[in-house]
Structures are given as structure tokens and as C-alpha cells.
Amino acid sequence: MTTPTPPADKGPADKAPRTERGRRTLRKLLDAAAIEFGERGFHEASITGITRRAGTALGSFYTYFNSKDEIFRALVDDLSGKVREAARSARQQDLPALETERASLTGFLRFASEHKEIYRIIDECEFVDPDSFRLHYRNTARRIHERLAEGIRKGELREDLGEAHAWAIMGMNVFLGLRYAVWSEDAGAEEVAELANSILREGIAKR
Amino acid sequence: MTTPTPPADKGPADKAPRTERGRRTLRKLLDAAAIEFGERGFHEASITGITRRAGTALGSFYTYFNSKDEIFRALVDDLSGKVREAARSARQQDLPALETERASLTGFLRFASEHKEIYRIIDECEFVDPDSFRLHYRNTARRIHERLAEGIRKGELREDLGEAHAWAIMGMNVFLGLRYAVWSEDAGAEEVAELANSILREGIAKR
């Protein structure tokens, strides 16, 4: 381990920023960590690499985190929240259920094309911190499941939809993002979201 | 590196087994590698761990592979082929297009529940050998795309289906496998495949 030893008397509870300046520093550290872990991977990434990218002193790092593992976990939680917000902010209130799915996927695809590093970070999380990996996908599926339940309540969606349908929709969205937002952008977010939405509207059979 | 140095004069072209006994040994090494990499991950896995599990001499390993990287790549190629075969052997010839998708997914889910290590190995491949990772998913999507094209030719599927629909279907299948074949088996392969197939048959809107 090349990681410097942090002060032993600080637990996570001490570490939430109390000032606006502290919040900005924490934000800089997390944004720098996304680049560092995204470009170098967990094992090659270093705390000094993160603080150099963030333009902060090493001491600032230990004000908020005890270790590379700890900022990685915080980053996955942060990115998970950003994915949620990218989908949520892309849709207006009271859209029909199918339009809600379309807007959520469009928002996610746009976010992924601007933050291509999220795939590598979330995927590496399966190995670095399996609990956070599962939590990210369980939470994402739960939100889709809640949207489906709302669509059923409004009488717009099939009444037999459940958790497995939410996982199916999440899988569609994740792989379309990998192919069309991260690997190559040969189709735009709206176009890809429409192709996926057409499956949810009518299936794939000829009418 | 703790890896013993292999004979330098042997290239991959020399290494295909020439006898039935050689094919059995190679099979034992790949099956052992699946367990070793699946349980320990690429970095912790060792060549001696593989040969011990396979019950072969260390020399047998170097008859077929030059390094841990090389057997990992061969294993991903082997597993990719097994996924293809699991889907193919589960479906009869000349099924209707939608039944072909259902049977393929059922076959994949059964395979994944018996070989839970494939997710970890394919996912870790993103970091160990990104080209093989992309090739596995590109090939899988291409096969789904070919099945969709065949369904269009037979007049059973929407004529506008293309590569993105194949990626959407692959994503559904991969995440349903992760959730219902690897993490927990609280729903059977047929049941999960039917839930996914209902999306492809009719979408999720109320009729």
C-alpha cells in the first residue's frame, strides 16, 4: 500500500462539509475522482492523482475521506445519484407513462455520452465494492418499478407488470447506453430512445 | 510477476491439441480456469491454482498457453461460445420468431444459473482484455440481429427492426440473467423468459 495513513480518530460522521467552501472542495474531489478512476481504473488510481486533478492539498482529501476505497464508494453513490437526476430532470411532471420512459432514457443517454467514465466506474465497482454495485442496480430497478406501478395506477400500463419487467427495461437502457453513448455515438439520444420506446409501445411483432 | 517463464519458441499456432487426450486436457484446463477466475478474480488467480483444480501438471498448461492472460482470453472466447450454444440448443428449428427469442433466453438463463461465474469473468474482461469484452457483446448482438432479420423475412416481425433493437433485447436478457439466474433464483427460467417475451409480443401498454 502506498496510501498515506489517515488520522485514525476521524470517522465518516465527522466528514460531511459544514461550509459552502467545504462543499465545493468535496465536489472538486469527487469530480476529480471520476476522471482518475475512469481513466486509470481503481488499482492504478491514486489519492495524489485525485488531489492533483482537483487542485487541492492532500490534507483536504483526508478532511473528507479516509482512503481510496472510501472515496471510490462515495463516488459510486454520487454517480448513482447523478444517473437518477439525469433521468428525472429530463422528464416533465405528469407525462404519460410511456413518455416518462422515453424521456428518462433520453436523459440517461445524454448523461452517459457526457460522462462516459460512469460505465467503467460502475462496472469496476462489481469487483472493488460488490455491495455498492448491487445497490446501484437494485435502486435503479426499484425506481423503474415505481414508475411502472404509477402507470398501472393511471390505467396506462398492463396490470401484470412487476419487478422483472423493470429489470428488463433497465437492461435495455444500460446496453443502449454502452453501445450508443459510450462506444460510439452513431445514433443520437432521441433516436435511440425512440427505438427502445417502440418496443415498450408495441413489441416487435408485425401488426 | 510470479508467472513462470514459458518456452519462448512456442506461438499460439503450435498449441492446438492434436490428440483426443490433448483435447480432454485442454477442456480440463479451461473448466478449471472458469472456477479459478470466477472465484478469485483475474489478479488473485494463478496458473498453479488452475493446474491444481484441473489435476494436470504445470507443463500441460504451457503445452497450450503462454500466460495467465492467454488462458483468460481463451476462456472468454470459450464461454462466449458456450453462451451461443446454450441459446441455440434450447430452440428447435423453424420456431416462430418470438418463440425463438423465448427459447434462446430460457436456454441462456438455465446456462447462467449453472455457470454463475460467467458474469464475473465476462465483466472482469472489460478491464483485463477490453477487445474480447467488446467482441463478446458485438457477436451476441449480431446473432440477435440476424434472428430479427430472419423474422422480418418470414413476415413475422416489424420491418423497421435493426441493430439497436438487438442491443435492447441483449440488455434485457443480460440483466434478467444477472438478477434471476446469478443473484437469486426466486423465479424460474421459463417464468422470467415469459415475462420478457410478453414485452416483445405486445409491449407494456394496457390494451
TrEMBL record, chains A, B:
Record bears the keyword DNA-binding = yes
Listed A to Z, the keywords are: DNA-binding, Transcription, Transcription regulation
Taxonomically, the superkingdom here is Bacteria
DNA-binding annotation, residue ranges on this chain:
46-65
Stretches with biased composition (Basic and acidic residues): 11-20
Do the record's keywords include DNA-binding?
yes
**InterPro entries (alphabetical):** Homeodomain-like_sf, HTH-type_TetR-like_transc_reg, HTH_TetR, Tet_transcr_reg_TetR-rel_C_sf
One Pfam family matching this protein: TetR_N
Q: Where is this region: Disordered?
A: 1-20
**GO MF terms, alphabetically ordered:** DNA-binding transcription factor activity; transcription cis-regulatory region binding
**Domain called HTH tetR-type: residue spans:** 23-83
Q: What is this protein called?
A: TetR family transcriptional regulator
